UniProtKB/TrEMBL annotation:
Protein name per the record: TonB-dependent receptor
Biased composition (Low complexity): 50-63
Cited Gene3D superfamilies: TonB-dependent receptor, beta-barrel domain (2.40.170.20), TonB-dependent receptor, plug domain (2.170.130.10)
Membrane topology reported for the UniProt record: Multi-pass membrane protein
Residue stretches making up the TonB-dependent receptor plug domain: 89-209
Limits of the TonB-dependent receptor-like beta-barrel domain: 335-794
Length: 836
């Protein structure tokens, strides 16, 4: 609880000085402060319909200087899931959650990923992570792998990270868009389409689409500082967020913003059973420092043609601990025993550079809206192994570095597209027909760089071996696509939307997708809607070509490329695209005045899911790794069972995901005592295995552990409910929300006892449901300044504790390979913001 903070915690919190974008009061929201209400209850979409410079100038003259160009509630204009201009959220044919900047900052979290996780029940994030998997911020929708969620920025496909999530768990194999590389200060709002949309946007839009809309205001300066710490007294975080807009001769705008965020390590490990101390720091949040900047600009060349451009750049330094090595491991190497007299914990250190450039022209011609754009994005990751050794190199040469350039990855995406749309009115049809179409060409490239020779020769850098030349390389492909989208009314209150898309990949062939959506409004207070579609996810270049080895004190685990000699000799085959069939139906109802309720049910049949499969162990794994030129430590010759394992990415299974989304909002007016906004949002979700694939030699591709990753590692439910009270003059605001995380079930490896390192016997482990409380109190110091003190998970709930016999070396007391409650405990923060 807040009252349990120590003086040291409060002193750290008190360093917060600056602020953000949310002081503004709109007539509709009546709130001058940011509050962490669920995303469905307030919207803030920037108007996308084009106007002439003269019209915009006239509008600006009527608008106070500090008001934003957003609208609240169901009146927001949305651009995701529709090709029509001026479509309002209340009329959406598919379910769309709208998250405003004010809601994001109101969570008190310095990162976009963690903010969204507190607002959207259908969105989950990993419980924790280790190795490189902890160094990329991924999100999942509807209990599916992060690769099945498409991320757009201002409607344009965003490039993905080069850092693959290679560790075991439901996110394994994903190279998602790292949304935290986009400055939070530059985000106007986010539209989350909870619907399959491959026919509209292409690969990856199976679970849904996240469209990040950047700010376009041509005036103002906003500042925000966020300072926080966990309930355990570690994990100190500091974020500074600044953005502002400039007017270009009343014909355009430039908006510039940036973030600086630092996060310290948290330590959640159990005692190491070799030392019976907490010296092993494997489990916890990695240390991270991230700087990001962005610019967004537009200019009216004529009244009908606008040029636009934008750029984002981010740099991240992050460090994650590996398992602790005992001093005895260096007994034969006195020179390095002196360097590490108390043993050592290898560190995996990431230096990441990420940028994206966008340029385009859009306008109207003969009634057609047209948009021609080019987007180039790149993510480069250099991964070093620090505070470690190569004892094999020392034995051979008498010396070894303690820091190694181990691995590097590069992901490039260049997308060029043309989009057209027009609304037709004809004599033979009584309703307007909106026709949209377009084409795109995308170049994708993925490269794995070779580590320094000292990192992969002899016994390799301990803990994190370098990439050898045989597993390095560069691969690319071309993607061409075309789509057509037609929407109209069949009756006055009956909408229908038809979309179709064809795509060609030079490595995996052709795909065809389609979608039909419909909505019928029985009255202004009751409507139904439904969608039927098919979709796909093309295997990423990383899934096709990535290989790496992770070495622990008494075990090693590798991933080898599906087309490598080691994989092919064990029955591997080329990857195919995942394909899906989705059905969704829902209602929008206002049973009593101002009580807004939506309920949507969905089913996603996903075929040929891509996950690691064909796991092999012991001597069989040793032969496969050696065939792929991996170097193993000398003691690996005695390892048995799952102490030595490897696998490759494969099309492993068909699954069926079913679920329900519910949202409801209701306001209460207390007169001179202010007003309250109440809200509830629920996601129920379940995935079942329908078919498991086998390798070419007849061996099943999945173990019970990997079946659990696919089917039960995501919570069966997530519920967010609560309310926000505002005083009559908006000086004060108090927000309280509860989040309930449903159960997850995992199959845990035994590390002691008769089933130690078994590949067929696992412990079924239930991570039981958890309740957390988020609360904040905001005081508006002046019309420009406000301060918020609050906490997330204020009663410091933690995941269920893993039994001792199922913890490697006794260390991971919380299971990292799920997406339920995070392992950091409570987080308390002070947020100060200003707008000028």
């Amino acid at each position: 609880m807040l009252t349990q903070l120590s003086l040291r915690h409060l002193t750290l919190l008190g360093t917060s000085l600056l602020g953000s974008t949310f002081l503004l009061v709109t007539a509709e929201s009546r709130a001058a402060t940011p509050q962490p209400v669920p995303a469905h209850s307030v919207s803030g979409a920037h108007k996308q319909a084009r106007t002439t410079p003269a019209a915009r100038k006239a509008k600006a003259a009527q608008t106070p200087r500090h008001e934003t160009e957003v609208s609240g509630g169901t009146e927001a204009v949305v651009v995701t899931g529709t090709r029509e201009f001026g479509k309002k959220a209340r009329d959406s044919i598919a379910p769309v959650d709208i998250v405003t900047n004010r809601q994001l900052t109101g969570t008190g979290q310095p990162t976009l990923r963690d903010s969204l996780a507190l607002l959207l029940p259908s969105l989950t994030v990993p419980t924790g992570g280790f190795d490189a998997g902890a160094l990329t911020d991924s999100i999942s929708l509807r209990g599916l792998n992060p690769n099945e969620t498409l991320v757009l920025v201002d409607g344009k496909r965003r490039h993905t990270t080069a850092n693959i999530y290679a560790d075991g768990g439901p996110a394994q194999g994903s190279t998602p868009v790292d949304i935290d590389m986009i400055p939070m200060a530059m985000i106007d709002h986010i539209e989350v389409l909870r619907d399959g949309a491959s026919a509209q946007y292409g690969s990856d839009a199976i679970a849904g689409v996240v469209n990040i809309i950047l700010k376009k205001q041509n005036h103002g300066l906003t500042m925000r500082s966020n300072t926080g710490i966990t309930s355990e007294g570690d994990g100190f975080q500091q974020g500074v967020f600044i953005d502002g807009g400039l007017n270009l001769n009343n014909r355009g705008f430039v908006h510039i913003g940036g973030d600086f965020v630092h996060q310290d390590h948290t330590f959640r490990s159990g005692n190491d059973n070799r030392t019976h101390t907490d010296v092993n720091q494997l489990l916890g949040q990695p240390e991270q420092t991230r700087e990001s900047v962005a610019i967004n600009a537009g200019y009216d060349i004529t009244d009908d043609i606008q040029a636009y451009a934008g750029a984002t750049y981010a740099h991240r330094h992050a460090e994650s601990y590996q398992n602790y090595r005992l001093p005895s491991s260096l007994a034969k190497y006195p020179g390095y025993a002196a360097i590490y007299p108390y043993g050592y914990s290898p560190i995996e250190a990431l230096e990441e550079d990420d940028y994206e450039l966008t340029a385009g022209l859009k306008g109207t011609l003969a009634g057609w809206h047209w948009d021609v754009s080019s987007v180039f994005g790149r993510d480069y990751d250099a991964v070093n192994a620090d505070s470690t050794t190569n004892v094999g190199l020392y034995t051979a040469t008498g010396e070894t570095p303690t820091s190694f350039a181990a691995q590097s990855y590069n992901n490039t995406q260049w997308t060029n597209s043309v989009d057209l749309s027009r609304k037709f009115r004809t004599s033979f049809w009584p309703y307007a027909i909106n026709v949209a179409g377009g084409a795109s060409y995308r170049y994708e490239a993925y490269a794995i760089g070779t580590g320094s020779p000292a990192s992969y020769n002899y016994s390799s850098s301990d803990g994190f071996p370098g990439t050898n030349p045989a597993n390095a390389g560069k691969w690319s492909r071309d993607v061409a696509a075309g789509y057509l989208d037609i929407s109209t009314n069949l009756m006055k209150h009956w909408q229908v939307d038809l979309a179709g898309r064809v795509e060609h990949y030079t490595d995996v062939g052709n795909t065809k997708t389609g979608k039909i959506s419909t909505r019928y409004d029985f009255s202004p207070r009751f409507a139904i809607r439904g969608t039927f579609s098919n979709g796909f996810h093309a295997p990423t270049l990383a899934q096709e070509h990535y290989s790496a080895l992770s070495v622990s004190p008494t075990a090693a685990s590798g991933i080898i490329a599906a087309n490598s000699p080691g994989a092919l000799s064990n029955g591997a085959s080329a990857l195919k695209s995942e394909s899906s069939t989705s059905a969704e139906g829902g209602i929008i109802v206002e049973p009593i005045k101002q009580l807004h309720v939506t309920v949507d049910v969905y089913q996603i049949d996903l075929r040929d899911r891509i996950m690691p499969g064909g796991s092999i162990y012991g001597d069989q794994a040793r032969k496969a790794l050696l065939a792929d030129n991996f170097k193993l430590p000398p003691e690996a010759s005695t390892w048995t069972g799952s102490q030595l394992a490897t696998h490759w990415f494969a099309n492993v299974a068909n699954t069926r995901t079913q679920g329900l989304d519910l949202t409801a909002t209701y306001p209460t007016d207390f007169g001179r005592y202010g007003h309250a906004d109440w809200d509830v949002a629920i996601n129920l979700n379940r995935t079942r295995l329908r078919h498991q694939a086998s390798s070419s030699n007849g061996t099943p591709l999945l173990t019970a552990q990997y079946i659990a990753y696919i089917t039960t590692a995501y919570p069966r439910s997530k519920i967010i409910f609560g309310g926000t009270w505002h005083s009559a003059r908006n000086k004060w605001a108090v927000s309280v929300h509860e989040i309930r995380y449903g159960e997850t079930t995992s199959q845990l490896t035994y590390y002691t006892g008769p089933y130690a390192y078994s590949t067929s016997h696992y412990l079924e482990f239930q991570n039981v449901p958890k309740w957390t409380t988020n609360a904040s109190v905001t005081y508006n110091i002046s019309p420009r300044w406000s301060a918020t003190i609050g906490g997330n998970n204020i009663f410091a709930k933690f995941p269920s504790v893993v039994p001792e016999g199922n913890r490697y070396l006794g260390v991971p007391k919380y299971y990292m390979s799920t997406s339920q409650l995070g392992m950091n405990g409570g987080y308390y923060y002070l947020d100060v913001s200003a707008r000028f």
